[in-house]
Design goal:
Elements: E1 6-10, H1 21-27, E2 32-34, H2 52-67, E3 72-77, H3 79-90, E4 95-101, H4 111-121, H5 128-137, H6 145-154, H7 157-169, E5 182-188, H8 193-205, E6 209-214, H9 221-224, H10 226-238
Parallel strand pairs: 1-2, 1-3, 3-4, 4-5, 5-6
């Protein structure tokens, strides 16, 4: 859609661009929507996930090559929310505003031990029964279950460890406080304590941000309450 406001949707780890199907359909009548599959995931499973830094750099290069001077609103969930924070912080000329959903922003201790355990259990991601359990944690709806199982099975051990490693070590960029655009920070009221405790400093560091704690939601707001989530995002965008 030529000339329409552009929105970039960044999915979480273990899923792919398909998680945004509902929001994409809601936005497309009035906006140009970009939905990439991140390295190591979905249609990009053959591209290894190496680091948050390289992924953000690649997104920025792609945006500069295709969008020229046109900025985007970036919406990110979980892993994608961390990438959205870095993209807005490091490339504010490309991002007009950001919606940050369920971003961990406090590094975990014992990361090496956690990754060692994850490495040993990585083959389980190819088992349907294990993928079903993980899908339940993310509130993946029944009609998306096969997409989730296929995506999960396609992620290599190397990509999984690289993505999760950077996720666990993530710290809020200092430049986030200087990002000039608006920001909406969302977290589920029933998410893990670490997630809820991460949302507060993300909000506190940014003078033009709004914090929304979603009662009754766990880690998977866009999939758990898609209609509510879509309406919330659209209303926030329209209030610009």
């Amino acid at each position: 859609m030529s000339g329409a406001p552009r929105v970039l949707l960044l999915h979480g780890g273990g899923v792919a661009g398909w998680m945004w199907d509902s929001l994409r359909r809601t936005l497309e009548p009035n906006r140009s929507v970009l939905v990439p599959d991140l390295p190591g995931h979905g249609r990009s499973a053959d591209e290894s996930y190496t680091s948050h830094a390289e992924t953000v750099a690649a997104l920025a290069r792609s945006m500069r090559a295709t969008a020229g001077d046109q900025v985007v609103t970036v919406v990110g969930f979980s892993l994608g929310a961390q990438l959205a924070l870095r993209l807005a912080s490091e490339h504010p000329d490309l991002v007009s505003q950001a919606v940050i959903v369920s971003a961990q922003a406090k590094p975990l201790p014992l990361t090496r031990f956690t990754l060692a355990v994850l490495g040993k259990s990585a083959p389980l991601t190819r088992r349907r029964w294990f993928a079903r359990l993980q899908a339940r944690e993310l509130f993946v709806p029944a009609h998306m279950l096969e997409e989730y199982i296929s995506t999960s099975a396609g992620i290599t051990k190397e990509s999984l460890l690289a993505a999760v490693g950077d996720n666990l070590r993530f710290e809020l960029p200092d430049e986030w406080a200087l990002f000039p655009g608006r920001a909406l920070i969302m977290v589920g009221g029933r998410e893990r304590r670490l997630m809820r405790e991460s949302a507060a400093p993300i909000h506190a560091a940014h003078p033009r941000s709004e914090l929304s704690v979603v009662d009754g939601c766990g880690h998977g707001i866009p999939l758990q309450r898609p209609e509510w989530f879509n309406d919330r995002v659209v209303r926030w965008l329209d209030a610009e």
